[in-house]
């Protein structure tokens, strides 16, 4: 009976995922002015609703991870050693921000806990191509290939909505070709090669960037 109930959901997810793949920007071909306008102006709505597809096992694992006991994480937090982190100040979006790249790999929830407890900040939210480009160059110069940013999917059933963990507006995105439809998991990471975003399980262990 469960199999019969899941079949329509999986079919719905397949159709919606294909539609979303066609809508996702393919910036790997080089950044043109049209690409940048699409990212800066049309970034919020196309991938806000992402239908359920066939990654149900990842969904339930991540759901549990995102709702884990925050008090336990706070109690057991271990702040990074100085040699495991790199700080940088930069003026992006008209304001000066301090970013901390933590090389020691953590899950998404553990990374956010370290950002809030150790640095009184959050995993970074990115709201412009300029900031994204800066983070790409900075991490590339530090030989850091992949790292968490603060994007995550709030809901799994039927429709998925992207949010920033610091509560700011989801008004920019820079997905890798084929993403987010072809990804799995509900948390977002960035690559220094191309600066593109992908989604993966929140239980993955990655380096991360805090915005202080």
**Can you tell me the CATH class?**
Alpha Beta
Identify low-pLDDT runs.
Answer: 1-57
Sheet of most strands: 8 strands, mixed
Beta percentage is 15-25%
Radius of gyration: 17 Å
| CATH H-tier superfamily | Mannose-Binding Protein A, subunit A
Shape: globular
Helix count equals 6
Structural class: alpha+beta
Total count of strands: 10
H-E order: HHEHHEEHEHEEEEEE
Distance between the termini: 50 Å
Number of discrete domains: 1
CATH topology: Mannose-Binding Protein A, Chain A
Taking all residues together, what is the mean pLDDT?
A: 75
The appropriate CATH architecture is Roll
Helix content: 25-40%
Characterise this structure.
With 212 residues, the protein is α+β, with helices and mostly antiparallel strands. It has one domain (2-211): Mannose-Binding Protein A, Chain A (Roll), CATH 3.10.100. It contains six helices and ten strands. The chain has helices spanning 2-23, 33-41, 56-66, 70-75, 108-118, 129-141; strands at 50-51, 85-92, 95-106, 122-123, 146-153, 159-160, 162-164, 187-191, 197-200, 206-211. The strands form two sheets. Strands 2, 3, 4, 5, 7, 8, 9 and 10 form an eight-stranded mixed β-sheet that branches. It is globular, with a radius of gyration of 17 Å. 34% of the residues are buried. The model is unreliable at 1-57 (pLDDT under 50).
What's the arrangement of secondary structure elements?
Layout: H1 2-23, H2 33-41, E1 50-51, H3 56-66, H4 70-75, E2 85-92, E3 95-106, H5 108-118, E4 122-123, H6 129-141, E5 146-153, E6 159-160, E7 162-164, E8 187-191, E9 197-200, E10 206-211
